């Protein structure tokens, strides 16, 4: 099966599964695939909103019910949890919306918020708002990447596999660089 067929058949499932956790790389690639016409951009965004919202809700409820045992198991999360708690005291809604944009807090943040006094309904509301902002922005990066390549190369179809490989490589290198910087 050709790359286009795989993307068309499994693209939305990959977007949903990828956005349940971190999701930026998958969503950027989906935005690029939407630009190429393999996926529908509105469906990519809606799928990402659903996956991102459900993933963060699961982390929130995991924090609500199992937070103490999770943090005993992963003591390295403590500084991030303390950071989220400090921010929550001042900016409830803003922190819930912004946590998905803050590197290193995408998974830990909702768990920490679940351990706090924030009511579940409030988290649901602001989590949905955050996902509705995040999904089109991140998918838009991939879409704009495709548009800029189209502007640079008149016959982009010949270069799309190379462009996808380049996009994946850049995403992996960025994640590696961030993780090294974070460990220091």
TrEMBL record:
The keyword Membrane applies. The chain crosses the membrane at residues 12-33, 39-63, 123-146, 158-177. It comes from Microvirgula aerodenitrificans. Coiled coil: none annotated. It holds the Pfam family VTT_dom. Keywords: Membrane, Transmembrane, Transmembrane helix. The keyword Transmembrane helix applies. GO terms for cellular component: plasma membrane. This is DedA family protein. InterPro entries: DedA_domain, VTT_dom. Residues 23-142 form the VTT domain.
């Amino acid at each position: 099966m050709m790359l286009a067929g795989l993307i068309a058949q499994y693209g939305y499932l990959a977007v949903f599964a990828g956005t349940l956790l971190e999701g930026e790389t998958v969503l950027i690639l989906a935005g690029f695939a939407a630009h190429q016409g393999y996926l529908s951009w509105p469906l990519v965004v809606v799928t990402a909103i659903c996956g991102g919202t459900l993933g963060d809700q699961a982390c929130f409820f995991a924090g609500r019910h199992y937070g103490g045992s999770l943090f005993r198991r992963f003591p390295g999360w403590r500084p991030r949890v303390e950071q989220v708690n400090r921010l929550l005291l001042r900016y409830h809604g803003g922190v819930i919306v912004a946590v998905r944009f803050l590197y290193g807090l995408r998974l830990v943040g909702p768990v920490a918020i679940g351990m706090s006094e924030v009511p579940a309904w409030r988290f649901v509301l602001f989590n949905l708002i955050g996902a509705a902002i995040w999904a089109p922005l991140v998918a838009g990066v991939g879409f704009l990447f495709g548009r800029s390549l189209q502007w640079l190369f008149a016959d982009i179809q010949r270069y799309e596999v190379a462009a996808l490989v380049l996009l994946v490589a850049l995403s992996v290198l960025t994640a590696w660089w961030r993780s090294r910087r974070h460990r220091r």
